[in-house]
Amino acid sequence: MENIKSVTFKPDKLLRSLDLIPICSGIGIRARPWPFGFEPHPFIRVYYLEKGCFDLMFPQKIYQLCSGGIYLIPSSIPFQYIFKEECKHFFIHFSSHSLDHIGIFNHPLELASEDCPEIRELIIDFVKNSFVRPESLRENIKRRIQIHHILLPFLEQLNDLHGDKLERKDTLYQIMNDIEQNLNGVIELDKLHKKFAMRRSELSAKFRLRYGLPPKQYICMRRISNACSMLIRSQMTLQEIALSCGYEDLFLFFRMFKKYTKMTPTQFREHYRQI
To answer: Does 202 or 1 have the greater pLDDT score?
Structure first.
């Protein structure tokens, strides 16, 4: 049995100018297998698991999410849900270019709710208040501030775990930087591996080991993630969004978008912006 409630946000122009874009939040109750397979997801997710346990199968490892845990789950990296019992969780979905660009954020981060009771309460409060659409700029700003407070201990944890990698500008960092700077244009992997004096198979293996995806799939997922943000926060046409995300062929853009989101771009925009 499943009972999922969700509320879609439509942040005003001021909030859309900020990097963090709230998408939806709600309460999920599930006791059956998740119908989706092993695939990437275009949003970053915050979960507070109030009841039960379930697994997330990532490319390199299976992570168990347990009752009382608070989790931050990255976008763009493919994973699969594995449910073994009834679970209840509070969720917040959002997009953030800044977090997406931190390549070492490629696995779930966990906080214990008993160690961070204020974060647990912020998540519960955020979700429960989401069922009433905010009428004022003050309420919208309050919700944005709440998400920033929720993220802070996760970012501190990420820095504690990988601070050296955040500072280290090694070859993979430079490759990632090249990719991120050219997502709206043509990225030729043959030229990329030659530029950094690596065999293509070597580049792909090392990239996948660190970031969880081979370069080609990562590029596609990042472009679709960018497209999701543009559909939510801009009035750009689908043609303009496709070109901005490196797709000159609109049909190819539609096909890839539906492959990763299970919706057409128009359906996605209508669902998440309530146009």
So the answer is: 202
CATH classification for the domain delimited by 2-166, as one of 1.10.10.10, 1.10.1240.10, 2.60.120.280, 2.30.42.10: 2.60.120.280
Whole-number average pLDDT of the chain: 79
This prediction has a pTM of 0.70
The domain over range 171-273 is classified in CATH as 1.10.10.60: yes
Q: Who's near 226: CB < 8 A, 6+ residues apart?
A: 97, 183, 244, 245
